[in-house]
Amino acid sequence: MSVDLAFDEQELLPAVAQDAESGDVLMLAYVSEEAVARSRETGYAHYYSRSREELWKKGGSSGHTQEIEEIRVDCDGDAILYLVEQAGGACHTGYDTCFHRTLDGDIVGEQVFDPEEIYE
């Protein structure tokens, strides 16, 4: 890597995925050094699951992949931004973005798939 990344004590960084065309924020997840390397190698977003403690490719089971157009790093090197072309919905709940609710609980996003049909 040509930029130093400041991984936290768990050796992770927060990663925001943003639709490269619309600018919509799709999701927030975490990446390890291996996830960043795999994303660069394949051109598809990879993340690190803190709950499963494993590397995962976005869309690996759903087919709703994120093709990376560019990876950006914030000024402190402690967060990254994936600019992506999203295939299908970004959220495992079936919505186009994980940010589909207001703080008051109003739904502002669009449900684009039924998660029960994808995740059995």
Q: How big a fraction of the residues is strand?
A: 25-35%
The averaged pLDDT comes out at: 95
CATH topology: Ubiquitin-like (UB roll)
- Which residues form runs of ≥5 with pLDDT under 50? none
Profile the largest sheet.
4 strands, mixed
Write the CATH homologous superfamily.
Phosphoribosyl-AMP cyclohydrolase
Count of alpha and pi helical runs: 2
The CATH architecture is Roll
Shape designation: globular
Order of helices and strands: EEHEEEEH
Number of domains: 1
Q: At the first level of CATH, what is the class?
A: Alpha Beta
DSSP strand tally: 6
The gyration radius over C-alpha positions equals 14 Å
Pfam family, one: PRA-CH
Keywords: Amino-acid biosynthesis, Cytoplasm, Histidine biosynthesis, Hydrolase, Magnesium, Metal-binding, Zinc
EC number: 3.5.4.19
Function: Catalyzes the hydrolysis of the adenine ring of phosphoribosyl-AMP.
